[in-house]
Specification:
By secondary structure, this protein is mainly α. It folds into 2 domains: 21-82, Orthogonal Bundle (Helix Hairpins); 94-197, Iron/manganese superoxide dismutase, C-terminal domain (minor pseudopilin epsh fold). Helices cover 52% and strands 12% of the residues. It has 8 helices and 3 strands; from the N terminus they run αααααβββααα. Helix 1 packs antiparallel against helix 3, helix 2 runs antiparallel to helix 3 (65-82) and helix 5 runs antiparallel to helix 7. It is globular. The chain binds manganese (III) ion. Residues 27, 31, 77, 159, 161, 163-164 line the site of manganese (III) ion.
Length: 198
Amino acid sequence: MPFSLPDLPYSKDALEPFLSAETLEYHHEKHHNAYVTNLNGLIDNSAPGNESMQDLERIILSSEGPVFNNAAQVWNHTFYWKCMKRGGGGTPTGELAKAIESSFGSFEEFVKEFTAAAVSQFGSGWAWLVKEGRDLKVVKTGNADLPLKHGQAALLTVDVWEHAYYIDYRNLRPKYVETFLADLVDWDFVAANYAAAT
Ligand code: MN3
C-alpha cells in the first residue's frame, strides 16, 4: 500500500488570520502532497508496511538521498500541522513548563532561543524543541533533516521553508515565527510529546 496524504487536523481556514486558508491549501495539498507522491514513486509499494508513521520512521532511519528527503518531509509536515491549533499560543503548563524552565531558565528564554534558531536557519529548514536524554534543547535542521535522525525526540517544530509563510508574511520570517509562538502553538500536543518521550 502506498503512503497517503493525512488530512489536516483542522479546517483550512482554522488558523486565520495568522495563517490563511490559501497558505494551508498550497502547503498541504501541493507541497506536503508532493512529498507523499514523490516518496511513493521511489519505494516498492507492492508489499504491505508503507502506511503508518512507524513505517515512515523505519524508512527515514534506513535511507539517505531522495527517499530520505521525501520520507522525512512527509513526517515533518504531518508533525508540523499538529503543532498548531485555532486559539493556540500562550504558555505551556504542568511538567512541560517545569522542564522548559529547568532547561532554559525561563519560558521567555526558550522563546528567545527558538526564535533565534528559526530566524537564523539559512535557507530552507526547521526549528525544533527536542528532548535529548534528560534535557530539552532547541535545534535547527536544514532542508528535510529531523531530530529522529539524531537520536532526539521532537516535541515542537516550525517550518521555515519560504512556502510556509511567503503568502501571508512575504519575506518577514521573524514575524511569522513570532506569530507561530504567540498565536498558533498547540502546547497540549507538545506536552503529550514530552510525556511520551519521558
Ligand atoms: Mn513545508
